[in-house]
Specification:
The chain is α+β, with helices and mostly antiparallel strands. It folds into three domains: about 100 residues, Arc Repressor Mutant, subunit A (Orthogonal Bundle), CATH 1.10.10; about 140 residues, 2-Layer Sandwich (Endonuclease, Chain A), CATH 3.30.870.10; about 55 residues, Winged helix-like DNA-binding domain superfamily/Winged helix DNA-binding domain (Arc Repressor Mutant, subunit A, Orthogonal Bundle). Helices cover about 50% and strands about 15% of the residues. The protein has 14 helices and ten strands. Strands 3-9-8-7-4-5-6-10 form an eight-stranded mixed β-sheet, with helices on both faces. It has a two-stranded antiparallel sheet with strand order 1-2. The chain starts with 8 loop residues before the first helix and ends with a helix.
């Protein structure tokens, strides 16, 4: 019971032994408690310091206990004060905990800072960069002297520093001029695939760091840097699952008399599942022109459906 207000068991035993008598000596307390005199003296000294016992001058020294009700009030008031101080200290720690950086997750705000973070994470890679390319982009094409939003990738591939695997969203390759930009990356060594409904913007540097931003985050100008954690593992797993389902784009530079550059790009879009409307916007054609080109290609490869034409184009290395 006494431990509740910070009184050790020995002190409590000595204090309670003092209560029946007005005054007691160490010898009397020894007979009542059977504690060694040295321990009794130490306990009395501490009790005096707490204000629970007084000492009468003279020899032998005599000791008197403070009234229990008064002693209890003193101890409870002291403990309440100490607990109040502890609560204030913990409140301060809580503020630091909530406002301080999470070692697993870092919030980045503003288009410029987000672009810089995307660049920094790519430059930190030593082996491989894995990425989801999904519009709209935080930095418009051309703002940093590039005709596409993958300037840093081109630099890394040109220097031969790291490998790149990129899954492009269908909306990305459908942007005017974007497919040629993708082909350029493939010629430099990028391994590329195209998927429908790529969920987020994502760049993963090796297995050590990543930056991610959802469509909702883009509207608010936010991105998140992931450090080693289950979140980073989850991002890596998401990439690999999406990569496995996406359509490969394996551009070859061989000449093929049966297909020209326009049809090669058209087949690249077709293989990704792009609609006639998307293909028309990409080339600036009418829907009728798109369908005429598709029917001619299907006739050449002996395909009965658009899907068969796309698969045959992949098999022949046209895309």
């Amino acid at each position: 019971m006494w431990e509740t207000v910070g009184i050790p068991a020995t002190e409590a035993q000595v204090y309670e032994a003092l209560i029946p008598q007005a005054m007691s000596t160490v010898d009397v307390l020894h007979r009542r408690t059977l504690l060694k005199p040295a321990r009794i003296i130490r306990a009395l000294t501490d009790l005096i310091g707490r204000g629970l016992v007084t000492r009468t001058p003279g020899r032998p020294a005599r000791y008197t206990a403070l009234a229990p009700s008064l002693a209890g009030s003193v101890l409870i008031a002291k403990r309440e004060y100490e607990l109040g101080q502890l609560q204030q200290y913990l409140n301060g720690l809580e503020e630091s905990f909530r406002s301080g950086p999470d070692e697993r997750l870092e919030v980045v705000e503003g288009a410029t800072r987000i672009y810089q973070a995307f660049v920094r994470i790519q430059r930190a890679a030593r082996h491989e960069v894995r990425a989801f390319d999904k519009p709209p982009y935080f930095v418009p094409p051309g703002e940093h002297g590039d005709d596409g939003p993958n300037l840093e990738e081109r630099r890394s591939l040109q220097q031969g520093r790291v490998g790149y695997r990129v899954v492009y969203d269908q909306q990305s390759v459908a942007l005017p001029g974007r497919l040629e930009n993708v082909w350029d990356g493939i010629r430099r060594g990028e391994r590329a695939r195209v998927g429908a409904g790529v969920p987020v913007k994502l760049v993963i540097s090796d297995r050590t760091e990543a930056i991610i931003s959802s469509p909702a985050d883009f509207e608010r100008g936010l991105a998140y840097v992931l450090h080693p954690s289950s979140l980073l593992d989850l991002a890596g797993g998401l990439f690999e699952a999406t990569w496995d389902r996406a359509m490969p784009l394996n551009r070859t530079d061989r000449n093929d008399a049966t297909i020209d550059e326009t049809d090669r790009q058209l087949l690249g879009l077709l293989a990704t599942g792009a609609t006639d409307e998307v293909i028309a916007r990409t080339f600036g054609w009418s829907i009728r022109t798109v369908q005429r080109h598709l029917h001619e290609i299907m006739r050449r490869v002996g395909a009965q459906t658009r899907f068969q034409a796309g698969m045959e184009a992949v098999r022949r290395g046209w895309v």
